[in-house]
Amino acid sequence: MPNSHLQEQLGLLHQLQQLELAILSLHQQRQSIPLKIAKLEEGFQVHQGALDEKKETLAVAERELRSKNAELADHQEQRQKYETQLREVKTNKEYQALDTEISYLQKKESEAEDAILGIMLDIDQIQEELRQEQASFDAEKEKVGLQKATYEQEERDLEAAVAAQQQERKRFSPDIDKDLMTGYQAWGRRSKTAFVSIVKNNACGGCRIAIPPQTLKEARKFEKVVQCSSCKRILYPLPEDEKETNQASE
Q1: At which of 149, 171, 193 does a domain end?
Q2: Sequence-separated (6 or more) residues with CB below 8 Å from residue 239
Q3: Are residues 58 and 154 located together in one domain of the fold?
Q4: Which domain CATH number covers 72?
């Protein structure tokens, strides 16, 4: 008959191992969430950048429009002054000089008006593109907000799951033999891999190497701790493993 005490101890140690592996997995999942959120926000910055760029394009066009309007107003004001002076000149030479200036300013006014019309058309186009960009931005912002909230809820759920697993670990880990626990902790510090290996189909579950029959027989007695000769993990045969072996030999 197997030594029930050692069998129970190895069972507890295996449960502890499974819990800690689960906790490690939960921690890794939780640690990945800030990276997911950062990637989400980084992607969103593309939309923010496109919107900002379109706003700046509009601002540049509006500044250009104001500049052209100011330029047109200056030409008109100067032309009006010349036209006033034109009515007061005494000589033909003065008249011709002012008339030349007035013609030049009229030409500049026409050029400014054409430029203003072109800029206004550009502004209309930019404003329409900006409305579309804003709609796209708002939709993406809502989408990102919902996804971020999902990630944050997932993070809270993982934190709760870790806390529950840690509580479960505390519940039975004090029952594990001190020497076994010391060996388990030392192994974890060295290799960061499983310490207890389930025997499956007469092989070590850790390294998958076949266990010699005599070693397997000793492990199933649970009279002492038996290690895999290959990977040095503690072998933990389950009752089902022995049944499978017997069935295979029949």
Answers
A1: 171
A2: none
A3: yes
A4: 1.10.287.1700
Query: 160 and 184 in one domain?
Result: no
User: Could you tell me which residues come within 8 angstroms of residue 228 by beta carbon, excluding any fewer than 6 positions away?
Assistant: 197, 204, 206, 207, 209, 211, 234, 235
**Tens-digit pLDDT profile for the chain (250 aa)?**
456 889 999 999 999 999 988 999 999 999 999 999 999 999 999 999 999 999 999 999 999 999 999 999 999 999 999 999 998 888 999 999 999 999 999 999 999 999 999 999 999 999 999 999 999 999 999 999 999 999 999 999 999 999 999 998 888 788 899 999 999 989 988 887 889 999 998 999 999 999 999 999 999 999 999 999 999 999 999 876 544 444 443 3
Q: Is 208 left (phi over 0), alpha (psi -120 to 50) or beta?
A: left
- Going by the DSSP 8-state scheme, the letter that residue 176 receives in this structure is S
Of 171, 201, 229, the residue that ends a domain is 171
Tokens of 43: 């992607």
CA pair distance 10, 196, nearest whole angstrom: 8
**Residue 194 lies in domain:** 178-249
| 7 found inside a domain | no
